[in-house]
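Now produce a polypeptide, keeping tokens residue-aligned:
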Amino acid sequence: MSLETAGLLQDGEAVCLQWSDGKTARFHAIWLRDNAQDPETRASGNGQRLITILDIPANTRLASAEIKAGDQLHLRMTPENKELVFSGNWLRKRIYDTPAVTDRGWCPKHITTWDAGLNASVPTVDLNQAKADRTSLANWLEGVRRYGLAIMTGLSTDSGSLCEVAELFGYIRETNYGRWFEVRSEINPVNLAYTGLGLQAHTDNPYRDPVPTLQLLACLENSADGGESMVVDGFKAAQVLRQESPESFDLLARFPVRFEYAGADDIRLRAKRPMIELGPDGELIAIRFNNRSSAPYTDIPFESMADYYRAYRKLAEIIERPEMEVTFKMKAGDLFIVDNTRVLHARKGFSGAGTRWLQGCYADKDGLLSTLAALEEKMQEAAE
């Protein structure tokens, strides 16, 4: 699609553009000036802005707008008498002239929520393939972005091998548990994850601020009976809760709760956040659900506490529904990664016979999303 028309609005306060497919959108003069792509406004190397809002005249207006060959919009700004050029494609990707979002708990288009139906199509890649082929790595990372879950096979069973996976896209986030941590039976464990007990579906480390946004779990040995891994899409659970009990959804999104962890004499981790976190525009941002790490709730009014617990129970019941879970048995050399702000993971109990040894580590989504964006940009350039 190419630009076809450009008309000034409100004495140059804005411009209305129309593309060849009939799409129209308005852009304010102040927005266009702030987002100018010229070298006086943006650094050519990293694209960072070189001016502040105070460098832009408050009475900025458009004096003219003209479409020229090559799908280019040429603008002249007053009172600076500054010439700006934008491509129609660049503007098309950044249209903000859309209806205001009024829904609470919506997800962006790159997010796909899921239930047990994902069992047969969890994004999966072999480590060597991901290392050798950028497209395979990009597809795997895109799966993490879309579903909050992916599996990788073909890892070494050497201790610490999962670090290689994290370093494919970002950096390990070291915590009090170390650069990585062991998940196997121990005597007098410091955490219930280190026993053979089954674990309720949960997100990890809600007592941290900020919480680790990615968790990786790699299997080094697994000859024990049971111990299947289970994952649940917390965003899907929140959507079901909103459909079945809007008042419960509102309570869990409105009030914060407290989480804490004291694993040693010198460790006191505490955080206060809602179980269902929404952005200012209602976007579903994060789920925090961890019964083991919940502290006494003291930020909910007396009049709402009983209703809050009913809402909490309702969400827990939804999470426990068999139709919500994806279940798989890990074998040596397998790894799965979850978006820890979204996907809850669990484990069925396992017996003392045989050995079950997993290692886990944390990373953050900013590295993964940065690597994915760079890969997608390079693939787009190669395709053009």
Observations:
- The first strand starts at residue 3 and ends at 9.
- The longest helix spans residues 302-320.
- Residues 110 and 146 are 6 Å apart (CA to CA).
- The two ends are 15 Å apart (CA to CA).
